[in-house]
């Protein structure tokens, strides 16, 4: 049992850290927020491809690196430290994993190499007009019409939809959900973003990232666009969402560590009443509580990834990880800002980039109540634990 | 024991409410933090009622006040109407001038303040002097008949529309810390002053504050408030004048109820957060009891204010209010899920982005004007009599 | 607006404080816990009567003092400071108020003077085998049989049942509750504790107070034992429970203030590392947070009592008061114990008497979830508030 | 990176588990905190397996250990089985004797410890020396060939069944604080020792600790551990030996799961707390994630222990565990409502009073062995490099 990185992991971490340090500074982030119409940097995206990051977990036979989820966590943590904007999460993890899991041989051969090469961007069209994330909330419908499906509905928070080549759309093919626990009747479609009837509208957010409302107005797609089994998308999609949650938590934890490091440094440097403010026990308690939570969040994320790599059922761990990391990191952004005093709330101060992302990262991919329900299903509704 | 206003106070309050119902327009409501023509006009109307100078001597433009609570009653109602309260101009500046200013400053400035002629900016904070004002380095050099001011101030909220800076400067290189500061009044249009805006996070339009640069700015000696090098002590005394600062609960109440009403109405694809979700319902109920406690702490301040300056109770009230700001917004965000992150401009944004913007600024509230931990330190020291944390050991080591 | 006590209130407070200081020390409390079979001191109870405390809120025409609920708060706060054990709460407040509100003239004339005189003790038989306090949880049944009622069922947490002369029993006469919000179908009975079929069994508790399980096995009571309207007890009982909640919170707050004062004193006296521990910012933050909450709890209790005295609807305030005071005071007992270090958890240390009562006081008369539901009904289910 | 045990470690663990399945009886489980014949017998069986002296030199009765994790694996499994872990005897006393004790102390006591011959009591704390051991006043006077000990110690958990006191005493009136303490071993049956029980709140039967009075107790000089007046430094070093202290999560896990299973089964007049009450369900789920974090912090300690002493991580683990003790019991009490307050003896008491007793002692966990705030101070200083709170100002005033 050890937490040491392998040589390859060390190399991955160092490369990512150096790249981020060089390419993803605050000026760059401000520029992406204020002046880019893409929300990320296409040049940087190509660099990601060149470094092999876009194939990190994808199978080697389709051009991927075939690396582990733990490796992914190591990479995403570095991206998160610098809150690097990119469509990696849903392109590589959500879509890449879904295609790898349940795509046909033709789909895999056709689609995965272009993900790895950085020539396809995917967006994930799942969330609808509900506060919740349960699959039962989906109402967007896909009706059979001859040898095609016609999709109608409205998807929200489709990140980078406007820049995506393909939308991974989860739609209802098997009739309405009976209750909140009903995850049946859903099918995944890979929809060309430029299909007739697809319109995107930017949803302005706290992070100033690129979230879109996407309307599907009788969008006709051939049967070949179906990914996985008709009416049974959730069985394939849930593991992909679990991987996405792990990657998201890794990113989030990275952001938390960076904010914490900046706040700690400031506590050492800032002198008031002839003492560095970090000498105050109150400040020490805040920073110690924060780092303790971050260590816990980080270890839980690595552990969950490691269990997933071993093919174990990680549903309960993913729930606990997402619930804890999300709340913890958001709280850490708040604590960090408090250490900076009034400055921590000025638009021009660098750490407000983190503050603005904290809550949004917490609520992405399902707010905490959803993941608590996942935990509850695992610990309460299942068999009792053997306490020996 | 009596938690209600007397008949005279009720009558005064009715007068205030009637006035506010007539004059608080949408524009006035929106000017709570920023200056606008509507705001100036509104405050001038209050001035015309004689409400700004209540309790001050008539020779300086003051008016007799009908009850010791007149100022609170006015501010509580202003706050309830989301209109700008009577704040620093009267509570800090006018009182300090009255207590320590020269006769000419009194005659010159007090009537202006009570008539709402001109705006003021409190000009204290500097990059290295935040909570520790002893660190101030902006210097005013003695040039015979005037001072020459050089330096920089920040977080000066009213700088972009003020007429005068109410400013603390260092006036001696030799005297020890805290004995080398002076209060001065600086004309905003003096040559050598320049300003640069600073915006609060997430609110690029309304919530502005400023950096102010002073480059060889001349200030006549007559604009020194009280004695030279006594500024720090005047500022400390002013904290005890700031009875207006005990008004804190109405904002937090308004925020909570505004969000509560929103949750009663909003309908996410047929789900109503508070009636369909027992968890949110229970969380909002618990928060309601905590927000109510804020009202109680404010009421306690007012009860005590008739007897003495409620400085400890005001610290509690402010700290609690700041905690409620945070708790209310965090809970609202969590209940909203991803929809909580939408900004003004999205048709799906909760209360047109209000909740999100309030959420982002919630932390600032815990810091601004002292912060929760500072308030607790005041409580620990003044009320509980606990010793200064940085005092030397009581027993010699051995 | 002022929070000054009137001369009479000052006298009441001083008398109570002096009496408690003299009569209700730790040795007395330990003795009551360990050696008494009554759970309170009958001598002291007589003194209460002599000082008029047992008639504090009862109407003057029946021998009471006709004082206000605010006065009651002032008195109970002093009793609470010394965590004085007595059947005052349910005898004077719950039963006294119920009888005053809805007793017949005969009942009032017969029963109230003996409460005032300290010759009758009442116990409140309400709670049953449920975690909740909602009236719908009541299953204990009273069936008409000729000109009598026959009561069968099991009541829990009937404080001082064994010492009571009369049990105020809330039983179901109008059929089972439809749902949790259904408060209909209940009737109050005043049952002689010595009636055939009544048995009491002590329920040992954290506080080591005297809570009883009371079984009613076909207990036959005449119709004259009914208090108030048949099937509509809740309308009469709810205001009595509200008053009881106010008095309980006053008592609880008093206990919180005393614990806080003791912890603060200890923080000043206890020297470690050459400094009083109260010099540490961490300790200061705990004690400041606590006293702030106690001031809030106390003011909210006084304010609620004052509103009740003015005849206003206080349901929402009572909910907020009970929810806040209960949690706050329990947390304060914990914080106080923490200041005392390991000593704060030794059986022989005086403050553990407070620690042991904290949680129990919190959960008495309905746990917090019940009162949160009361708040929710008031703030969510009713009309919107006018925000002007 | 590897969160799993190696094959060799798994084999060892299987051996341990098989042993525990055979030997951990109900009596052993119940002896987690108190001494009983069943406990002594059980520990002696472990000793016979050579498991107590793993990693110690064979000449002192030690046995080679198959893996650097042997002691943790053993303790984690012991803890999981609710059996007494291998603790202070090996982790603190044996290690300190090995490092600084005389050869005769090593030959005399180490084999006894590894064979479970005799029990030990850590004897540090005094009324005026809690967190600050520098304040110790129990004095051992030099009487030539022996010391004479006078004074009082408290919170001595094992005093009523121990054979030796592992004790710190003051040995000089002249030397400065921290340089005047010595570690000694005192026979429990020495004339002049008397004890008085102290009980933990709410548990008048099992959880006992003691006051111990020393009245002219003679201790031969040969029982001084290491050098005179170096005791404080030996104790500080011992903290870093206490790798066994990193075992904290299993208790909290067991407590949480025991309560969770209870809530799944218990039925209050037809209401099941977790399936009929969405609020409790959500609260228990959140707590589950927090308890899991405790497991992670423990795992982190173990991962790091292969490289270095995980002192900061152990502080996190202990602090988190203590917080979970509190959160678990408080939540359980709230879910139970008034039924949470019932004590052992009531047929309605939750888990026969277990939850209530655990609730009462939850605060003690945050204080015992350092406390949460002390752990955070260690984290702030050692990990984050923040300055000592009581250090003098860095800048001279003015």
Features:
heterotetramer, A: 388 residues, alpha+beta, Butyryl-Coa Dehydrogenase, subunit A, domain 1, Butyryl-CoA Dehydrogenase, subunit A, domain 2, Butyryl-CoA Dehydrogenase, subunit A, domain 3, 3 domains, 11 helices, B: 398 residues, 8 strands, 44% helix
**Average residue-wise pLDDT of chain A:** 95
Low-confidence stretches of chain A: none
Biggest sheet details of chain B:
4 strands, mixed
So how many helices of chain B?
12
The CATH architecture of the largest domain in chain A can be named as Up-down Bundle
Q: What is the share of helical residues of chain A?
A: 40-55%
Oligomer: heterotetramer
Supply the CATH class of the largest domain in chain A. Mainly Alpha
- The stretches of 5 or more residues of chain B where confidence is low (pLDDT under 50) are none
CATH architectural arrangement of the largest domain in chain B: Up-down Bundle
Annotation field: number of helices of chain A: 11
Q: What sort of overall outline of chain A do the alpha carbons produce when their principal axes are compared?
A: globular
Which range does the strand content of chain B fall in?
Answer: 5-15%
How many structural domains in the coordinates of chain A? 3
Shape by Cα distribution of chain B:
globular
CATH topology of the largest domain in chain A: Butyryl-CoA Dehydrogenase, subunit A, domain 3
CATH topology of the largest domain in chain B: Butyryl-CoA Dehydrogenase, subunit A, domain 3
CA gyration radius of chain B, whole angstroms: 23 Å
